[in-house]
Amino acid sequence: MPAPISRRKSLLHLGAWVGAVLCPARLSARPRKIEHGPTLTFAVANDFHHSNSDCDPWFNRLFQQISGHAHLQFCLALGDIADAGKKTSMEAVIASAERSGVHLYPTPGNHDNDLPLNTDLYQQVFPGRLNYTFRQGGWQFVAIDSTEGRNFKNTRIQPETLAWLDANLPKLDRHLPTLLYTHFPLGAGVPMRSLNADDVLARFAGHNLRAVLSGHHHGRTRTRWHSTTLLTNACCARVRGNHDGTKIKGYWLFRAELDGTFERTFIPFSA
After folding, report:
1. Using CB atoms within 10 A of its CB, is residue 265 exposed (0-12), middle (13-18) or buried (19+)?
2. Strand, helix or coil at 169?
3. Which residues contact 88 (CB under 8 A, 6 or more apart)?
4. Are 192 and 185 contacting, i.e. CB atoms less than 8 angstroms apart?
5. What DSSP element (H or E) covers 213?
6. Domains, the chain, with CATH or none
7. Which of 17, 26, 215, 239 is packed most tightly, with the most Cβ within 10 A?
8. CA–CA separation, 207 vs 170, rounded Å?
9. Contacts of 105 (CB under 8 A, 6+ apart)
């Protein structure tokens, strides 16, 4: 007769079930399984601005560095993947990530819309990655299209995105820790913030929204919305500088726990 399962073991089994991975279709490399405990480790990079093949060595080295972090699961890519909307630029960034085994979860930026003035080329390269959610390591991730064509300031998140939020937020578990990521900033007072950022944030009332991560402003900012932390960061571009006057390029490394807490570390990058 098998031995009874203790309460402690039952809780451990439950924790493992909560941390199970449910990930969407493959874009680059398949996300790695979590190997040690419930901590979820992922990178967050913004504003790549790939312009031509001269940028390829830069991004090869960037993703080699990102892939070197222990137990890394994926990288959020917060828009402006291309510098001038070229499909070949977006494809080149995917190729660099794939070579290093880094799985990208992108969101579009205004420069990704430069050629067609909309997200058509972006969606050809990143199908199913306009407005979407995924769950991993006990966390829910929400990506939304925050662009208004190629406009770079005084922009509004478009009605189609707001309608998508209205249809899909009720499908999320309100209790699970949730992270929202966008290209245009949503934090109060941050340069080039979406004019209707408050309309987006209000839709997350009642959800366990732990963080909002954005690009577009190439500089580190930190604001609060109730108990939620909103961040922007330096860019990862070879051909563009930071808007805040700093010289160091880099990305965030996040370690997120099942209880909704997280630590973030700024990781400098120089090719």
Report:
1. exposed
2. helix
3. none
4. yes
5. strand 209-213
6. 38-269 (3.60.21.10)
7. 215
8. 10
9. 27, 74, 75, 76, 77, 129, 134, 141, 143
Q: Find where tokens 């930071």 sit.
A: 242
Measured between its terminal Cα atoms, the distance across the chain in Å is 61
Return the pLDDT at 127. 98
Give Dmax (Cα) for the chain.
Answer: 69
pLDDT, position 86: 98
And the tokens for 168?
């899909």
Q: Which pLDDT value is given to residue 271?
A: 81
93: helix, strand or coil: helix
Helix 56-67 with 87-99: angle, nearest 10 deg: 40
In this structure, what are the phi and psi dihedrals at residue 232, rounded to the nearest 5 degrees?
A: -125, 170
Q: Which long-range contacts (CB under 8 A, 24 or more apart) does 223-230 make?
A: 223/187, 223/188, 223/189, 223/190, 225/186, 225/187, 225/188, 225/201, 228/201, 228/204, 230/185, 230/186, 230/187, 230/190
In whole angstroms, how far apart are CA 239 and each of 82, 187, 218, 255?
11, 26, 13, 29
Q: What is the pLDDT of residues 109-140, one digit of tens each?
A: 999 999 999 999 999 999 999 999 999 999 99
Return d(Cα 28, Cα 73) in angstroms, integer. 12
**pLDDT tens string 6-34:** 433 343 333 333 333 333 333 444 554 43
Place of tokens 């478009």: 158
Residue 31: the pLDDT is 53
- Read off the pLDDT band of 42 (50, 70, 90): very high
